[in-house]
Amino acid sequence: MTVLSERLERPVSTSPSRAVRYVPLSAFVIDLAVMVAACLLAVLGRHHLPIFRSATDVSSSVTTVGPLLVVCWVALLWALGAYRSDVFGAGADEFKRVFHASMYAAGFVGVGCYLAKFSLSRGFFALAFVVGLPALFAGRVVLRRLLHQARARGVLQERVLIVGGPKQVDDIAAVVRRERWVGYSIVGAVVPTGFEASETPSGVPVLARAQDISALPEWCTDTDVVFVAGGLPYSSTELRQLLWDLEQHDVQLVVAPAVTDVSGDRVRVRPVGGLPLVHLEGPRWAKATRWAKRSFDIVGSGLILLAAFPLIAYAALRVKLYDGGPVFFRQTRVGRDGQEFGCFKFRTMVVNAEALVASLQQEQGTSALLFKMKDDPRITRPGKWLRRFSIDELPQLFNVLLGDMSLVGPRPQVPAEVALYDDVLHRRLRVRPGMTGLWQVSGRNDLSVEDSVRLDLYYVDNWSMLQDLSILGRTVGAVLGSRGAY
Predict the structure, then answer these.
(1) Domain 6-16+157-260 has what CATH class?
(2) Which segments of the chain belong to CATH 3.40.50.720?
(3) Which keywords annotate this record (predicted)?
(4) What is the pTM of this model?
């Protein structure tokens, strides 16, 4: 057996991370409170449902079935894994388990009462689940947000040791550092023996050097999770033995494939003969160009225009009265498949703003790609208010109706910016640009160029209608909070 060729004497973080185990208990308490509240509301409200009115008094059956319903509901949540520690914090798996458990609970209670010829109030039964299921989702959403906030502050972290080559270690570390809400705290790395530096290029401390993974368990006692990446040779037998050895220390093993920016919906794990094969679905940009998204854009933009008409009229009046110039600013932007179109916005700058771009770029020392600057001297007084709450972009709803843009998509850019694109960036042009997108709900202009590009490419490759709805919902908070707006 090959042992660690060199173990470096570096302090390992021993900050308590075991408190993360109380997250499932917190979820259980929240779920139990929600179920009890839903049953109480169902008891009080069942008489107010006209479709379930009955002259029969079934009050005693409600008090009997209510506690049994709660017990059955909680038991199914536990049986379906809704309290597993690895379902909290990310992904849709947690909500799928809650939904399936709730449906099974409704089926068991309904069918059980029918077979037993038990007189159960139909109003109580319907209200308990109609109120209870959305309330369970809401409770899990609140818990997830609290968990993300705690992890962003460095609380409820799991200590992670990354095993692999320096490049593979840095790839994983970049994602972990960027997505702090995931709750991983990197304590160090184990790298191949040929690497002599005390840190990887991105600054991950090297705790040990090894020829293979056989002796890793003796160095994993102070961690919670071990990420195994490429760069160290190992066979399937050695990886299985490592899993058995880590089990004795209560340490999780994660095998990290060499792929990033792939949504969970595109990943399928299919065991074949005991070999877990990871299937990756192809990019979904083609689905974002079909009739369902286009129909949603037409209906959504029309309804928003009707609702926002008074605000649009007020904004147009303020722009016109300020300096007497044009109300709208029509700028050439590049849309789907490189087609240029006129993008409508309320004018927020002085009339000769375009003529000042070159001098401002030279002054700021920036290129044309994603050119933005704080305290832009070209912005008018009404323009600052319009930009702060993104009201200047409301006229783009007409672009959505015309088919030039979508409600959600990559940010539209000018031809000068597109001229700087490489082959990778041209993938952004495979879908219609959007009024809002991942870039807006993730920081807008406060993002770096690299992060903006990464988010746009992630959207193009991983499009889904649910993601569009989520982005639209998050946009409301981003606009009201004025995050990154200037």
Answers:
(1) alpha beta
(2) 6-16+157-260
(3) Membrane, Transferase, Transmembrane, Transmembrane helix
(4) 0.69
